[in-house]
Amino acid sequence: MEKSLQGAAAAQSHRYLNVAFLGEHASGKSTVAGHLLKLLKSSLTVQSDKITKKPLYASLFDTLSEERSLGMTINFHQAYAQTANTHFQFTDCPGYPKYFKNLLRGLQGAQVAVFVLDVNGACFEECRDQLTDQLTACYHGQVDNLVVCVNRMDHREVQWERTQYDEIVSEFRLVAYKIGYKEDQIKAIIPISGTQGDNLMIKSDRMKWYEGPTLIKVLEQVKVNYPEELKQKPFMMIVKSIHRVPCAETIVAGVVLQGSVWKDMEVFINSTRCISTSVKSIQAHCKSIAEASVGMSVGLQLKNLQAYEINVGDVVKQQAEPIVVKSKIKITASIVINRNVFTKSGLFKWQKINGHFHLGQATFKIEKLINKEGVEVAQIVPAAVQQGDIITCQLSFVQSCPSFQGTTATENPQLGKFILRDYGELIGVGVINEILNSK
């Protein structure tokens, strides 16, 4: 433990911050993220529009040919930059509802969520459900810091004026407060132009009415504090991506959820079997480090491990645990309802429903259903619940699948929650109260 504390102190000498960019798919979030990245890393080459010759900052993140042809983000993409004080990991998350699963993967481990909103109020109204779903995923994913960028202030119908900005600010606060965010968690609401760069790095002289910080300044001022007990727990990290480097061991990337990891540490991976390996090296923001502590985004080079032996969503741990088959697990969870009409026909006993566990996905069967009054029932109709109501379910996995990676929410808040979706909509968030292993 003494070694862990020494290494954690060394890791803290450098400030690392994981920032996720979210918002409706046509709000210009990839442009905002790309322009900020270019301002921080001037050596990057940005593609230009073939006709207008204007820089396409979104191309720094939207690297897939399908994304560029469709003009939307499909997968999550990461990039690194730094200032004198902070090492940043920027993650551009997809905004289109069809790719919500990829958004959840990109959001995992984020410490700050930057919401990019179009100043056009009509667009906000049309995408209120998308914003609600994304804010819900942030809130229950332990993302405690929000920054809002009201984009396209240079639009010909806005012309840098304040009126529509104020409307967006008011609407966003209502949605965020309803989900559970507090005023002090919204660090800034900044009027910007993603294409022209106003208020990204330098204060704009075209919006003198705005007296707040620029985007980069507020990100540098965000303070992330983890509970001391989380730092003292045994190391744990969810595998976010897997990389096979020629002539080198397999590298697994993710965010440290608890504890610390250091070079030569023995670790265990619960996949199709319990795998024992050790850490050969640790990479953070493309640099080798001796140790990583809770909250840091890292890549671990693991000895004698083949890429096919591990899967995205597996958990790398300091302690070995027995494999448990998912079909033999029952979960008792409190479901926080996200929408009034949460399914087309309500929830009923033996119903099958989709769930997203951090980076994994599973189908559940409802074995027991208890309404908000605490009474066990066979069905709960949509009209009987409202947003924010809590119902209790006992769930079992439909298919036999090894290595369940969840815990109770008390043990670890990130592993102890899951998203419930039906008909492509986020209907609620599950908070795991108890995990039962059936015989």
UniProtKB/TrEMBL annotation:
GO terms for molecular function: GTP binding; GTPase activity. It comes from Halteria grandinella. It comes from the Eukaryota. Residues 15-214 form the Tr-type G domain. Keywords: GTP-binding, Nucleotide-binding. PANTHER family: TRANSLATION FACTOR. This is Uncharacterized protein. Residues 355-433 form the GTP-eEF1A C-terminal domain. Belongs to the TRAFAC class translation factor GTPase superfamily. Classic translation factor GTPase family. EF-Tu/EF-1A subfamily. InterPro entries: GTP-eEF1A_C, P-loop_NTPase, T_Tr_GTP-bd_dom, TRAFAC_GTPase_members, Transl_B-barrel_sf, Transl_elong_EF1A/Init_IF2_C.
